[in-house]
Specification:
The complex is a heterodimer of chains A (215) and B (165). Chain A is of the alpha/beta class and 215 residues long. Chain A has helices spanning 6-38, 75-85, 98-108, 126-134, 146-152, 159-167, 194-211, and strands at residues 44-49, 56-61, 64-70, 90-92, 144-145, 180-181. Chain A is globular and about 60 Å long. The chains are: A alpha/beta (215), B mainly alpha (165). At the A-B interface, α1, α2 and β4 of A face α1 and α2 of B.
Chain lengths: 215, 165
């Protein structure tokens, strides 16, 4: 048994222990999130999921979904912002996110045209919040111009501010800022990247066509 | 502190597990891990920003592990009197009473009062006899004798149970 140097034996055993510990720590983490939820300490729960527009972070408080963030926006930055502005009691996982993630799955599959989950808009205020609250009135598969949205919130001159409000929408996809486009018909900018905006608009058009009754 | 608590669990989860395992075994160590991070999560928003997080967590973990050990010990062997263990934690790299040791704990519980306290404090708590004597009263020599008698009694009762299997 002396063919292996001690260090090597230790290293091999260490690897097995580390793998066991990693599994144990993962299950302890799951248990912690559940207990935090039970004891009212899970102020922000988040998960990161795959989607046709890249990896998406979804975070929710007790009152509803607080944040949807695209990878290009930086998930770390989104979590730091949530910790600073909502609560640092932030943990990954938890059953709280199951309904919204299921509905997002259905949306990305083209089988859902609106969302029916509570949204908590505390990360936005003032005119930006008015804009965000007005956006769900733009129907699935259609678009409105920045100027039309400005008029809809009673601030027809605030076209640029509408653009900013869309860019800073804390819950994109759930609140469809991707349906706001330029007056000339081009899609314009998007917090998740211009390509993501085109992808979402195309997804909605395609789903509508598939869904339309045959003439 | 205003950073996401998730980072704390990821960075320090392994360290806290090692601390809990230095005092407890198996599921008891896992319970202490959970209690540690739940307490830390509760305290996290109010924790001053200049606190050394790892040192703080290790302190919380040791306290939770010892609480857990005391709870288990009290549950199986009611040795504590008010103030009897003031400031003297039952520390030591000794496993708590796991499920497999239930018979042993029953045997310990059946010991006469002084023997039981000495056995728990010295053999499980890791306290030297001088310290044990201070806690249970009497001289070092008397504590040593009670400990030896207790272990001898355990050899008889617990050993007999083992042989019956």
């Amino acid at each position: 048994m002396s063919t292996l140097p001690h260090g090597q034996v230790g290293a091999v055993r260490g690897t097995v222990d580390d793998a066991d510990d990693a599994r144990l720590l993962a299950s302890l983490h799951t248990r912690l999130v559940a207990r935090a939820q039970d004891e009212g300490l899970l102020d922000v729960a988040y998960r990161v999921v795959d989607s046709p527009v890249g990896r998406v972070l979804v975070a929710a408080g007790d009152a509803g979904v607080l944040r949807v963030a695209f990878e290009v926006q930086g998930h770390e930055a989104a979590l730091d912002d949530l910790a600073a502005r909502v609560s640092p009691r932030v943990l990954e996982g938890g059953a709280r996110l199951d309904p919204v993630l299921r509905q997002l799955d259905e949306y990305f599959a083209g089988s859902r045209t609106s969302f029916d989950v509570p949204v908590d808009l505390r990360l936005t205020r003032g005119l930006r919040r008015d804009v965000v609250e007005a956006l769900p009135r733009i129907a699935y598969g259609s678009t409105a111009s920045y100027a039309q949205v400005a008029a809809a919130v009673g601030r027809p001159a605030a076209v640029r501010a509408v653009g900013t409000a869309c860019a800073l929408n804390p819950v994109p996809v759930l609140v469809p800022c991707h349906r706001v486009v330029r007056s000339d018909g081009s899609t314009g900018r998007y917090a998740g990247g211009d390509e993501a905006k085109r992808t979402l608009l195309e997804l909605e058009r395609a789903a509508l066509v598939l869904d339309a009754p045959e003439a | 502190m205003n950073g996401p608590f998730e980072d704390v669990v990821r960075v320090h989860g392994g360290t806290v597990l090692r601390v809990c395992r230095s005092v407890l075994a198996g599921h008891d160590a896992q319970d202490a891990w959970s209690e540690t991070f739940l307490a830390a999560l509760r305290a996290w928003p109010g924790l001053p920003a200049d606190v050394n997080v790892e040192a703080w967590l290790v302190t919380v973990a040791r306290r939770k592990a010892i609480d857990e050990l005391r709870r288990r010990t009290r549950h199986a062997v009611p040795v504590e009197e008010p103030g009897a263990l003031d400031g003297v934690p039952l520390l030591g790299g000794v496993a708590g009473p796991g499920e497999r040791d239930l018979d042993l704990w029953q045997a310990v519980r059946a010991l006469p009062d002084k023997q039981r306290r000495v056995v728990v404090l010295h053999h499980l708590g890791g306290l030297p006899y001088a310290e044990v004597a201070r806690l249970v009263g009497g001289t070092d020599a008397a504590a040593r004798r009670a400990g030896a008698d207790g272990v001898a009694a355990l050899r008889r009762t617990y050993g007999a149970q083992e042989e019956e299997r």
